[in-house]
Design goal:
DNA binding; 2 domains; about 140 residues; HTH crp-type domain-containing protein; about 10% strand; Arc Repressor Mutant, subunit A; HTH_CRP; four-stranded antiparallel beta sheet; alpha+beta; 5 helices
């Protein structure tokens, strides 16, 4: 996710337990629906921003849905490209905290399956930890 991405969460039940766990630095802002709609009604440009955000969310949903046509290893590599910070033409630094739990959840598989693929990627040297413990992905 980038700094312009928005997570829409409709919580109609006040005691519902919804948890968001960031994989990188984020700022979470909770906005009351009434305030949101008042701002939307009073600032015409805000509608344009809202439409852009909704389009971006739709693109991300489509990307997520399309991933299931690929093998697990390819899905994980696509995830690394999305989340990684490119440091050279072929190298990406992966976010701290990105582990088999989150990879499995994103890919819709078990942690065991995600770990198996991560081991395979380490064996063929597509991912490795550097001396500072930072996970690096080679494209």
């Amino acid at each position: 996710m980038s700094e312009t991405d928005v997570i829409w969460s409709n919580q109609f039940i006040s005691d519902s337990k919804v948890s968001y766990e960031p994989l990188s630095r984020v700022v979470l802002t909770k906005i009351d629906a009434n305030i949101f709609f008042n701002v939307l009604a009073s600032h015409p440009f805000f509608t344009d921003v809202l439409i852009e955000v909704l389009n971006r969310n739709e693109e991300l949903a489509e990307l997520y849905a399309k991933q299931f046509q690929y093998e697990l290893q390819d899905r994980i590599l696509m995830l690394f490209e999305q989340l990684g910070t490119q440091i050279s033409q072929q190298k990406f630094i992966l976010p701290k905290g990105l582990n088999a739990y989150y990879i499995a959840a994103y890919c819709g598989v078990s942690r065991v399956s995600a770990n198996r693929v991560l081991r395979e990627l380490k064996e063929i040297k597509l991912i490795e930890k550097n001396s500072k413990g930072i996970l690096i992905f080679r494209k």
